Amino acid sequence: MLKHIVMWKLKDHAEGADRAANAVEMKRRLDECAHIVPGMHAFEVTIAQPGLEATYDVVLYSEFEDKAALDAYAQHPVHKALVPFIGAIRAERQCMDYVV
Question: CA 84, CA 61: separation in Å to the nearest integer?
Answer without folding.
Answer: 20
